Amino acid sequence: GGGGGGRGSTPHAPRGRAAGGRGGGGGLRQPGDKTDFKKAPPGACLVGPESDIKKSAGYVCTMLRAGKPPPVMGIGPACVNQATKLLALAHSYLEEEQLDLYAQVDFPEYAESSSSAMVKLHVFQKAKRTNLAEVSEQIFVSATSEPDKVSGYIANCVREGPAKARLCITVAGPQPVLRALKAVFLARHHLAEDKLDLSIIPEFGKSDEGVSLVNIFVLSHAPGARL
């Protein structure tokens, strides 16, 4: 689960077929319908099309303060976008208490289908807030960006950059958010043999033209490390 345990999440292997898959047929009725979250642990924050992300962000904050931050899950670009914004909201809500969170990105059904759009964000409490503005690399992901290529770039930046490098992926809109998260997920696999892992902290931003953006800060660290 995505509780506040000492170890980080282990990303599901992107290759090979996972046992106990969903199988064919029985298509999704509506992306994010709670009956589709077959792999959701108890207490998970499930983000659907009608979810109130302000209330959901409050729930995540409450559980985090209690030492049991829930995983946040969404299916499909729109719901994954909302799930990411939910964490950005929770990140802002926690600021006045000098608390913070970070999340590790997983696509539980990727082994069954590389086009899977089910995201599971394992949430953890961060030891202290840090200034996220100092980044070693700025990456822009669009609706046409290819997650495979972006993931390779992320992995190379982390390998070649300063220790504990921090990247910033800037996105606007559901498809870019989904593609950015998939790129981070794949980059976690690329970096596993280097004994490195990645976590994210989403934060709201604005472009010079006033367009609402999400900045997904990517932090590199040793596998299982608490940030």
Automatic annotation (TrEMBL):
<dbReference type="InterPro" id="IPR036882">
    <property type="entry name" value="Alba-like_dom_sf"/>
</dbReference>
<feature type="region of interest" description="Disordered">
    <location>
        <begin position="1"/>
        <end position="43"/>
    </location>
</feature>
<dbReference type="GO" id="GO:0003676">
    <property type="term" value="F:nucleic acid binding"/>
</dbReference>
<dbReference type="Pfam" id="PF04232">
    <property type="entry name" value="SpoVS"/>
</dbReference>
<dbReference type="InterPro" id="IPR007347">
    <property type="entry name" value="SpoVS"/>
</dbReference>
<protein>
    <submittedName>
        <fullName>Uncharacterized protein</fullName>
    </submittedName>
</protein>
<feature type="compositionally biased region" description="Gly residues">
    <location>
        <begin position="18"/>
        <end position="29"/>
    </location>
</feature>
